[in-house]
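Support request from a user on the community tier.

User writes: "When I paste my structure tokens into the form, the page sometimes reloads and wipes my input. The last time it worked, I copied everything first. Here is what I submitted, just in case something in the input itself triggers the reload:"
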């Protein structure tokens, strides 16, 4: 079965075409700068090993879907003869609110519930819906499935997901911890459970999804016990442009001092803080900060870059410690996502001075785990707690869920 996996963002649409006989990715690409005067589609044929990037105006997500279909069926760069070969479409959805605890077939009722999630993820939900509508327009007979980043976190107990607000805020507005990156945490924790023997029961794992957006989860018995992101993806550790956890009283304080509106302070905390804010606008990219740190104190940005990275290190350590406490033990630590997979120095400084937990890295193995597609154990042989780098594959999870649901329709 050929399944198209779609990830529609506010101004982009990423895609991968899977063949489920052996879960091979036949093609992948992205449409970027949707709605701008000039955008582009970057398409890769993974069978032929070819790549074509075309600049053109992409007015809407509908137009982006049409471009994807053309790219997949194009005689030169396509991988299928007819779009009818695609038997199902899986969509990544950032936030399912309180209405979705698992993946679902798209129906009118599901669309209505998804529309109610708009307030939880305003930048994403509208784009997700546009992606679904585009697929329904150009592939009307193909079933669509939605897979939620928040779904895996629905196993959290109330003491993990509730806030210390008055209970009516939860009842009226569904204010609670929802988490994010659930598809990634689900994938890498599942792989780690396999490495631990394949039985979820009794396992205690901390998964660190560290990238431009970062979240850390406590996975006990194969289920989420707690996670760092909260009501929105703003919470938890500091990130590329997000502040992470702060004293909530800081928000009205800044609003008064800077004369900011709610939307302005929300934009500030999401887009002007974290790495970019702590380095006074120098960069939100970890690679840039690491280059400055490697250069040393002679670089004028050194002090701020070093501070930002040390803060992230400190916060990740705290979460590993806290989650070990609430799980009453620790069987493994997993690093994944952009920084987690490709920043050996960050992994090293996070794991050093953690002898109390029995964590000890192997320097050579840690350096080896850089831009590698394979699972790599980076802990030393005498480390009591194994530490792994497991490349995440959210699209694979979306594909598998989509396949399962669509196959269920035929029964």
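"...and here is what came back when it finally went through:"
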């Amino acid at each position: 079965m050929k399944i198209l996996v779609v990830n529609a963002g506010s101004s982009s649409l990423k895609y991968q075409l899977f063949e489920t006989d052996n879960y091979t990715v036949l093609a992948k690409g992205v449409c970027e700068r949707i709605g701008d005067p000039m955008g582009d589609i970057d398409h890769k044929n993974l069978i032929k090993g070819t790549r074509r990037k075309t600049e053109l105006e992409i007015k809407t997500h509908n137009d982006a879907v049409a471009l994807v279909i053309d790219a997949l069926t194009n005689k030169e760069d396509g991988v299928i003869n007819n779009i009818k070969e695609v038997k199902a479409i899986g969509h990544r959805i950032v936030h399912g609110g309180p209405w979705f605890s698992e993946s679902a077939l798209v129906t009118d009722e599901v669309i209505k519930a998804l529309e109610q999630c708009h307030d939880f993820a305003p930048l994403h939900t509208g784009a997700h819906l546009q992606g679904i509508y585009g697929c329904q327009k150009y592939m009307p007979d193909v079933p669509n499935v939605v897979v939620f980043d928040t779904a895996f976190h629905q196993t959290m107990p109330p003491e993990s997901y509730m806030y210390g607000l008055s209970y009516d805020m939860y009842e009226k507005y569904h204010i609670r911890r929802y988490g994010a990156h659930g598809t990634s945490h689900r994938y890498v924790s599942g792989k780690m459970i396999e490495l631990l023997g394949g039985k979820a029961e009794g396992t205690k794992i901390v998964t660190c999804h560290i990238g431009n957006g970062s979240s850390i989860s406590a996975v006990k018995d194969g289920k989420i016990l707690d996670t760092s992101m909260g009501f929105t993806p703003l919470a938890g550790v500091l990130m590329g442009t997000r502040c992470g956890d702060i004293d909530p009283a800081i928000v009205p304080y800044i609003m008064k001092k800077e004369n900011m509106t709610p939307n302005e302070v929300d934009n500030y905390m999401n887009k002007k803080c974290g790495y970019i804010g702590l380095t006074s606008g120098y960069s939100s990219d970890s690679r840039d900060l690491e280059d400055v740190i490697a250069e040393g104190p002679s670089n004028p940005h050194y002090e701020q870059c070093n501070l930002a990275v040390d803060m992230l290190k400190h916060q990740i350590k705290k979460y590993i410690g806290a989650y070990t406490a609430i799980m009453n033990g620790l069987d493994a630590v997993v690093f994944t996502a952009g920084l987690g997979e490709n920043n050996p120095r960050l992994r090293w400084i996070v794991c050093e001075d953690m002898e109390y937990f029995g964590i000890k890295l192997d320097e050579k193995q840690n350096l080896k785990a850089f831009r590698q597609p394979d699972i790599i154990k980076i802990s030393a042989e005498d480390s009591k707690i194994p530490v792994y780098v497991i490349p995440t594959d959210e699209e694979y999870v979306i594909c598998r869920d989509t396949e399962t649901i669509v196959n269920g329709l035929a029964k």
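Agent notes: The reload is a front-end session timeout and is unrelated to the input. The chain has a mean pLDDT of 93. The two ends are 16 Å apart (CA to CA). Escalated to web team.
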